[in-house]
Write a structure and sequence with these properties.
Arc Repressor Mutant, subunit A, 3-stranded antiparallel sheet, globular, 10% strand, mainly alpha, 3 strands, 124 residues, 49% helix
Length: 124
């Protein structure tokens, strides 16, 4: 999640599609890796993972969403980046009551977690 939060901190505001491209470049992902699909075949794995990271950061109040598919860093996100220089992951987000509320949302029976991409957790 940190690379996503850092990207928004550097650019202030932007569409998730731009940040997704920036992250793909940063991680040196090949076309084959970017084309990888979830087992359901409904979405590309990388797009899905970035989308979930943005959702988690938004639901925790580290990102705001001024318009659909456009995010920006909230001051809370900048504070978390500064306080946690090595990583932002589920253990950091778990300190926020909004995140726990989101995880326990109505009808949820299992805890959310970040799936792995290509055998590794990509900087989460």
């Amino acid at each position: 999640m940190r690379p996503l939060l850092e990207a928004y901190s550097a650019n202030d505001e932007g569409p998730i599609s731009d940040v997704r491209r920036e992250l793909a470049t940063q991680f040196h992902l090949s076309d084959e890796e970017l084309a990888e699909r979830l087992p359901s075949g409904l979405a590309r794995t990388f797009d899905n993972r970035v989308g979930w990271a943005a959702t988690y950061l938004y639901r925790t109040g580290l990102l705001t969403r001024p318009r659909p598919a456009v995010y920006q860093t909230h001051q809370r996100g900048r504070d978390v980046l500064q306080a946690n220089p090595e990583k932002e992951d589920l253990s950091v987000l778990a300190h926020f009551p909004e995140f726990e509320e989101f995880r326990r949302g109505p009808g949820r029976r299992r805890r959310l977690s970040f799936p792995r991409f290509g055998g590794q957790v990509m900087g989460w």
